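Ticket #4471: structure export looks truncated?
Reporter: QA, pipeline team
Priority: medium

Steps to reproduce: submit the single chain below to the structure queue and open the exported record.
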Amino acid sequence: MLAIILHMDSISLLRPAAIKSSSMIIDSAYEKYANLTRKHCGESFSSGELCPKLYTELGGRCDLNNDTFHCPDIRNYSKFLNRQAQLVLTRMLRIFDLLAQKHEIFYWIARGTLLGAARHRGFVPWDGDADIEIPLDDYIKFFQVAAKELPADIFFQNSISDPALHPNQSWWFHKHAVVGIYQETWNPRLRDRNSCYKYCMAHACKWHDGLMVDIFVLRRVYSPVYPLKRLPFEGFTLPVQNNWKEELESLYGEYWFEFPEDRSPSEHPDVFNGCEKLKS
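Actual output as written to the record:
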């Protein structure tokens, strides 16, 4: 019965037979766009640096050896709040990617995180969270297998692990027999346990509110996505869909590679204290 449910819920056309077959293809067009950002490096940015040192350039590392993560937390390696948050998010993305490679789980970075990879070799300087997309069948695999292997300081949040992340009226949401509700805005997330956006402190919600990687689950995946490629990101590489340039154009317009004029972070989290600690 479960196999029938999965077949109905998730369709991935032209999916490669194995993740390793497409895991190391770096698009040759990447340098054309990433180099355009260097001309902005000297411009002023009140919240930090427009071209900060990458995660690995700061001395950050993150590896999985013999099923043990070697990923020191380097959030204090920057003096700028938004960059400190991005160092936390980079570590979470890298850990997710290592688990995905280990268990042959397909996913790709998306939205502002994809824009950051293509335009900045890492995060957009004013971005305060991270976004990935994952087919439903791969999400189920992550939920059942890989999530159990996350380090203790990362909380895997969904409508099951965090009951507060649940709509008051849920009848119109698709509730999956295995993973529960997964649609936006009740999509799953990775949460850092040692930080706090402070949104719930201000709006009286009760779900876990640490720095997050948003996981957007897709019930349908079509052919332009595969085979996946990889782009450099903060000194590592992360998977992107095959038609990443077209995706950026559809999201941000023909001139997505140009810097906007309104540059400022929209969030000001506490990067060193979890929400429970702040409440006490």
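Status: closed, not a bug. The export was complete when the record was re-opened. Leaving a note from the reviewer for reference: The chain has one domain: 2-279.
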